[in-house]
Amino acid sequence: MHTIKSLYYHNPSVQGFEKMVAYYQKRGYRFIDLQELYDILGKRKPITEKLAFVSFDDGWQGNLQLIPIIEKYQVPICIFVATEPLECGNFWWEYVTKEMGVKRMFLFKKLPYEDFYKQLADIKKRIYLKRSAMTQEQVMILAKHPLVTIQSHTVNHPILTHVPDGVLYSELNDSKVILKRISGKEIFAFSYPNGSLTSREVDACKLHYKLAFTTEQRHIKLGDDLFLLPRYALTGQYHRDLLKVWGIWKWLKKIL
After folding, report:
1. Distance of CA 226 to the CA centre of its chain
2. Bridge-based pairing state of the strands 220-221 and 3-9
3. Confidence (pLDDT) at 1
4. Beta strand pairing status for 77-81 and 51-58?
5. Tens of pLDDT along 148-178?
6. Which residues form the NodB homology domain (predicted)?
7. CA 159, CA 157: separation in Å to the nearest integer?
8. Cα(73)–Cα(151) distance, integer angstroms
9. Dist. CA 234–CA 231, nearest whole Å
10. Own/partner pairs for 224-232, CB < 8 Å, 24+ apart?
11. Residues 51-84: b if buried by 16+ CB within 10 A, e if exposed
12. Three-point CA angle 48, 52, 57, nearest 5°
């Protein structure tokens, strides 16, 4: 046994999340927190049991509804939080999607840095959204929960490969500083927004963190690069999620 199941969500349903947790616990998996994962990988400790690690990206308010589930099953989770939405209440793609629709939002992602933020500022002036992101107070409370670890996901959730060097530095550094102030805890791990990275982003990350997570969909293996850790992207749709972690979903998409 040399691998760890690495699962991540954004804003799943309570029912879908609980089903997945129950599925793995019934099959003898033990869920580990971020610190234990780091200890295992950093020291290359032998893996002698079935292990799973669960994380969430962004900092959605809906994640708060999962607390009774993690308490029921005693499942530790890590939430990678983007800090700017804690202030404004929403994530940039929510504004763009409401203005343009989902398909054009994916094109919007590809805009050069300056065009992206200029157009986004104009869109925000026209759009009102009900808060979907956690507040600073909610993150502060969550950080005190023994089963929750808060870590970094940048300030603005940009496509990091599109930003200048100075912006890359501030996105990595400032989110760490802000979250440490809010949580009172060490911020030592990072999740790359959108899974977008090159060697530049990885090298910059190494200046601020001890490990970082991508969106590469596979198990974590002993010996993996600590700044390129993989995760299966799950949605809370139970049967589709099972196909993903079984490695079948990617194959089905190719043939259908």
Report:
1. 16
2. antiparallel
3. 57
4. parallel
5. 999 999 999 999 999 999 999 999 999 999 9
6. 50-256
7. 7
8. 22
9. 9
10. 224/41, 226/38, 226/41, 226/42, 227/202, 228/202, 229/6, 229/41, 230/6, 231/6, 231/7, 231/8, 231/55, 232/5, 232/6, 232/7, 232/8
11. bbbbbbbbbbebbeebbebbeeeebbbbbbbbbb
12. 150
Structure tokens belonging to residue 253: 């998409």
**DSSP secondary structure string for all residues of 122-148:** HHHHH------BPPHHHHHHHHTSTTE
Asked if residue 221 lies in contact with residue 2, where contact means CB atoms within 8 angstroms, the answer is yes
Beta partners for 128? none
CA gap 242, 235 in Å, rounded: 10
CA angle 37, 183, 195 (to 5 degrees): 50
Let me know how long the chain is: 256
Residue with tokens 């599925």: 23
Between helix 238-245 and helix 14-26 the angle, nearest 10°, is 40
pLDDT along the chain (256 residues), means of 10: 90 95 96 97 86 98 98 98 98 95 90 94 95 98 98 97 97 98 98 95 98 96 96 72 55 45
In sequence order, which residues have a C-beta less than 8 Å from that of residue 192 and are 6 or more positions away? Answer: 160, 201, 205, 212, 213, 214, 215
Interacting residues of 213 by C-beta distance below 8 A, sequence separation 6+: 6, 8, 55, 80, 189, 190, 191, 192, 229, 230, 231
Residue 53 φ/ψ, nearest 5 degrees: -130, 135
CA 211 remoteness from chain centre: 13
- Using only the alpha carbons of the chain, give its radius of gyration: 18
